[in-house]
Amino acid sequence: MTFNSNAELGGTTARRRGRGGGTAAVAGGGLAGLGGIAVLLLILFTGGDVTSLLGGAGGTAQDSAIQGCDTGADANANDDCRLVFGQKALDGYWSTHVQGYRAPQLIIVDGAASTRCGTASNATGPFYCPPEETIYVDPTFFGVLRSQFGAQAGSLAQLYVLAHEYGHHIQQLTGIMDRYPNDGTGPASNGVRTELQADCYAGAWIADATEAKDVNGVAYLQRPTDAELRDALDAAATVGDDNIQAQSGRVNPETWTHGSSAQRQRWFTAGYQNGLGACDTFSVSGGEL
Fold first, then answer.
1. Quick check: 58 pLDDT over 70?
2. What are the phi and psi torsion angles at 277 (to 5°)?
3. HSE-up of 20 (CA within 13 Å, CB side)?
């Protein structure tokens, strides 16, 4: 999606963490030894507490302010600014749909950063850390998506990634994570339903994103083009369990944690076309997922 170049940010709570701050190495028994691409295959779009997969956080993180993200033109030119402006629009949307809404913290990761859910980097992919109510994104991850997985990862795909992680924050705030805890893997598991709902939430936000305006009444975002929507759907398909497993040679639905490519695209589309009311992935049968 394209931001209106004259839209003004008007302040942000997003912070940068990484080089020069407290970074943590992955524990010896963790995933680092498997290589970056294997890490991506295992925990891409985790959307939950990844402490069990990654080493615990160590050191003291030093956050810094995000600089140079003042207008929509900055967001169109820079991945960091695109995420910061996306945060602004997402907070505006969810504050009108969730009573008592509180915004998550957004951390732009520079290289690697320690968190209560392990180490954040472009190898771990974007994730939401529930105990911190914080979203971590290393923007260089989008380059990994392009080079390793063939996804376009353009502007709308990047905002889809952020909106998906926001979806997990909404699930945390509204008690969905508590009502539907982890019950293992499989095509109808709570984990898959949780991820598909976050995709649906992302689609619902994107459909309504042009309604968010800055302090001067200027819309942050322009309506997405068909090409941009295809780009977002491509990103959703790229991180389907079946697509990821196919690259390792064996597709096993009983080990799925996020849903197939077709499911992720379908639920994103359901949210985009029909809004939040279409996003109850927990009330349908496994065959309807």
1. no
2. -65, -15
3. 6
| Per-residue model confidence as pLDDT tens digits over 39-48 | 344 344 434 4
Burial 5-26 (b: 16+ CB within 10 A, else e): eebbbeebebbbbbeebebbeb
Rounded distance, CA 262 to CA 7, Å?
A: 35
- Ordered by start, the domain boundaries in the chain are 15-288
- Give strand ranges (E) for 126-234: 127-129, 134-137
Q: Is 129 helix (H, G, I), strand (E, B) or coil?
A: strand
The secondary structure of 52-73, three-state, reads CCCCCCCCCCCCEECCCCCEHH
Q: Which residues pair with 115 in a beta bridge?
A: 118
Residue range 60-75: mean pLDDT, rounded: 87
Cα 223 to Cα 220: distance, rounded to the nearest angstrom: 10
Q: Which of 124, 201, 208, 190 is nearest to 167 (CA)?
A: 201
Cα 265 from chain centroid (whole Å): 15
Instruction: Identify whether the C-beta of residue 212 lies closer than 8 Å to the C-beta of residue 89.
Output: yes
Residue 188 corresponds to which tokens in the numbers above? 């109808």
Q: Is the dihedral of CA 52, 54, 57, 62 positive or negative?
A: negative
Task: Kindly report the pTM of this predicted structure.
Answer: 0.86
Query: What average pLDDT does the chain have?
Result: 84
Q: What helix, strand, coil percent values describe the chain, rounded to 5?
A: 45, 10, 45
- Report how far residue 89's alpha carbon sits from residue 83's, in angstroms, rounded to the nearest whole number: 10
Which residue is it, tokens 């600089």?
Answer: 67
